[in-house]
Amino acid sequence: MAVLAYSLGKREINHHFTIRNAKLIALVVVASLLVFHTASRYHGGGDSCEWLLSRGRYLGENVWQPYGCMMHKYKSIEAKTCLAEKRVAFVGDSRIRQLFYSFIKIIDPEQREDGNKVKNEKLCQDFLWYPEANNSMKERLISWTHESSAKPDVVILGAATWSIKLHSGSSETLQQYKVNLTAIAVHLERLAERGEVYWVLQDPVNEEVLSENRKMITNQKLELYNEAAADVLNSSKRNGRSRVKLLAASRQAALETIAQSDDGLHLPESTRNVGAMVLMNSVCNKLLRPIDGSCCQTLPPPNLLQKMAACFFLGSALVFLVLHVLGNNRHRRPVPPDVESLEEKKPATAAVPFGPKAPFHALCRMGVIMGYFYLCDRADVFMKEQKFYTHSTFFIPLVYIFVLGVFYSENSKETKLLNREQTDEWKGWMQLVILIYHISGASAFIPVYMHVRVLVAAYLFQTGYGHFSFFWLKGDFGLYRVCQVLFRLNFLVLVLCVVMDRPYQFYYFVPLVTFWFVVIYAMLAMWPQILQKKANSSGIWHLGVLAKLLGLLMFICFFAFSQGFFASIFSMWPISNLFELNGSINEWWFRWKLDRFAVIHGMLFAFIYLVLQKRQVLSESKGEALFSGRISNLLLFLSIFSFIIYSIWASSCKTKTECNEMHPYISVILAFILIRNIPGYARSIYSSFFAWFGKISLELFICQYHIWLAADTKGILVLIPGNPSLNIMVSTFIFVCVAHEISLITNDLAQVVIPKDSVALLKRLGAVGLLSLVVLLLTRGSQSTPGD
């Protein structure tokens, strides 16, 4: 009865919630969110700089998240670069002096909290003691407005507690504070015309631990003084907007931490550091433009290539509309084939030809999707937040997806080792784990980092296994086949290089699998071509394959231990345009070296398995164990034991560098394959849930960079502000729909761009090669490094 209910429940879900309906819902949701965010940004007031200064929340201990944008954590060298030849003045009481100390410690972490100046040849930061907003403070501001040579570039000031203390918190003092501040505000506005001025709102106090001579300083009175300051400074607006910025974020942070104050008045160091880092981001982000600091940044206008891409997609949409109006509907879109996303996508077998409208329809859909990509990660429309790792943010979603995977378990159509459904399932659950790893910031936790490194190696293992198996069994080394694979691997990335203004190497996984496909093809296609048919005639050919694999291993080892030679090869033009990032091939060297043996591991496994299969050594019938009972039990025990040993080793690693040095030589991929395939019942079932994601795994991996994560993987896209859980659900739903649609578009265009006629194919290859070269030469501007 339970099994029947389970089966009916799945059918009911699949019947009503189709992928087509999901995409329509996603389109409506995106349009609604676009209207909402546009209205909020341009009609509701406020920008990312105002959000940075005014509000935020703690993600965890000492980790501050401004509302709607990402705050960069400045290092000393960055702060010195930003503030070179800038004068920064802090004006106020002892709490402003503490903020001053925290600010200069960003510039010089060794700085001691004594003295009111920090000077060297290019840096000048001062603290000036003016504990009350009175005539003395006003005279100082007036002197700065008249003496341009001594005027600070940045002024941070604030005062109130001394006025409350000296006058016992009387209401007359508050009124005088308003009068004084009104007189001061005029000069603050003048200073702000040619510099930056920040008024720091008063932080709360811990009334219970205040000394007797400070008991009159209450949070209620401080709130009245803050309201007075905000009213006065906002009423001094010129051209409808005050140039004086109010710093309220540190006050909000202090509301949660003031209980840790030693004297009840001065903030804990961690909270002061939040205020100092907020100020540093406000001053420096627009100058240094850090990729993980979206607050206070103005976005650059689209470059020439981006404008050309927009015109191309708009032109395609126009042609599609014209053909549609003319009634050119004599075509049917072929049913998408069951494709392998990370290694290859098999060409469509449908005999139904494309009509002239089909490619323009595909380009029109792609244009809409690229517009969404641009809005998410290159336009100032949607919000961004930084990542923050906790064990719960990684492991709880992990449990959810594996429960779903078990719920969608089904019987396999075949029970061969690593059959198609099983490899799709494998790629699917690995991709979902990697997605959770990226969005949760789990690279900060070394044991998780090392286990995910195994998953990336497993993808490359499948690349070697899949391509070797195809060439060994089919022997198809034709140009059409090669172009199909290369197009399907690279189409999305090449489009993103143009639309998102990023170099090819930025999407590091695609260069990796493309490189290894070319290496596998070259190795197996070169003389002598050894295929299964030839090897069956004489066992000596098996030695020939092993000799080729040995040659490939020597090639890999030579490159791995000769970084100079590796650099000289991949730094040559035009290859360097493919593999350089930030003017260097260091990222490519790191990625290539990290999993350099995974592909040959997959090829060797494929060779041994196919030979054993041909000789009928394996028992692959339904329900039967792969080997005899004793051997199966021994291999299962060794596999499980190796997993345990690996996990213990990964947990004991102290640094990523140490772990990465050992990673290429330690692999538990074979152990997983044996555990998954030795028991006959395990080979007889698979998860259709994971397999579905496995078919679009490449698209998921690439799309996450810009429409699920943000700031080139450094942050998280925020579509639903104020509700992180709902935001993740909505952005994930849209992200998956987009990835699936791109997979279909790539399949459609592959049939048009890669014709089977050799002459036509060569002509198109020449045109595509020339166009790709131009694109690569022009997409070398804005660069950053993707996350782990």
From TrEMBL:
GO biological process: carbohydrate metabolic process
Topology with respect to the bilayer: Multi-pass membrane protein
Cas1p 10 TM acyl transferase domain span: 289-765
GO cellular component: Golgi membrane
Top-rank taxon: Eukaryota
EC number(s) on file: 2.3.1.45
Keywords associated with the record: Acyltransferase, Glycoprotein, Golgi apparatus, Membrane, Transferase, Transmembrane, Transmembrane helix
InterPro entries referenced in this protein's UniProt entry, alphabetically: Cas1_AcylTrans_dom, NXPE4_C
UniProt domain NXPE C-terminal: residue ranges: 64-117
Disulfide bond among keywords: no
Any one GO molecular function term: N-acetylneuraminate 9-O-acetyltransferase activity
Location within or outside the cell: Golgi apparatus membrane
Protein name from the UniProt record: N-acetylneuraminate (7)9-O-acetyltransferase
Organism for this UniProt entry: Scophthalmus maximus (Turbot)
